[in-house]
Design a protein that fits this description.
Length: 272
């Protein structure tokens, strides 16, 4: 018996659809950069960092300086770089890195470390829109941090052994920070960071004049807090921080008010 035409139509429709679908080109992802193009890009980035290797008058050998590329993007751009002096102290005859102009050419840079170099101005990096993390340690000639306020993508900031810099003006602008480390920075008042309510990680270690942590009760997203080497003696003001998972303190601190949190929310307290 012949099948009624009404039953044949769906089968014909599905067959036509399948043939049509097979004839359609499959979407393709953009081609990956050729290996030689990636290497060319990497070499161009290396050239920019080599410009940091300053040869002072009368000095023929390369300074004891490291300009290290820590990470690359997939297409060969520098993602993370560390510029560090390997000398304990730079001299007038060998000042080391004094300008960050070459770094400004690293347009996809996300992380920049400056350790112990003689930089005096951060202006060249203020236009790097991709910068998410900046780590500055022992750059004693650097006194103005205001260019960092132009880095809208910045979420992580580490400052260490940088006396004399104005932190209050800077931190009042960098409201997007989630990780902040102010180590040995002569911080005396925790209110300095109390408005950074998005902070999840805060390191205030070795600020010996810091004694009161009550303002930190406003940091309702805080999970990691380091208070070692400070003048803090009691942490009862932190009882309401139910997001806190790790607290580092000195042996002299009375941690008894927080012992209940160790059970209720899994808080780990490390005493050093």
């Amino acid at each position: 018996m012949r099948r009624p035409a009404a039953f044949a139509c769906p089968a014909v429709f599905l067959l036509c659809w399948a043939v049509s679908a097979l004839g359609q080109p499959k979407p393709t992802s953009p081609p990956a950069p050729a290996a030689d193009a990636i290497e060319a890009t990497k070499e161009a980035q290396r050239v920019e960092l080599r410009k940091l290797e300053i040869f002072p008058k009368g000095v023929k050998e390369r300074l004891n300086l490291d300009a290290v590329i820590l990470d690359w993007t997939a297409d060969g751009h520098v993602r993370a770089a560390r510029i560090a002096s390997a000398k304990a102290k730079m001299t007038a005859a060998e000042p080391g890195v004094t300008s960050l102009d070459p770094v400004a050419q690293l347009a996809q840079l996300e992380q920049l470390d400056l350790w112990g170099v003689a930089v005096t101005d951060l202006t060249p990096i203020q236009t790097i829109a991709t910068l998410k993390a900046v780590d500055i340690r022992g750059c004693l000639k650097l006194t103005a941090l205001s260019p960092l306020s132009q880095l809208g993508a910045l979420t992580r900031l580490h400052l260490e052994a940088m006396p004399g810099v104005n932190l209050s003006a800077l931190l009042g602008v960098l409201t997007g920070l989630t990780r902040l480390e102010l180590v040995n920075q002569d911080v005396t008042d925790a209110a300095l960071v109390a408005d950074l309510t998005g902070l999840e990680y805060l390191d205030l270690s070795n600020n010996k004049k810091l004694k009161d942590v009550a303002p930190l009760a406003r940091l309702t997203h805080l999970a990691h807090l380091d208070l070692t080497g400070t003048g803090v003696l009691t942490v009862d003001a932190l009882v309401g921080l139910d997001t806190l998972r790790l607290l580092r303190v000195s042996k002299k601190v009375d941690i008894r008010p927080l012992l209940g949190l160790k059970v209720s929310q899994g808080l780990r307290i490390e005493v050093k």
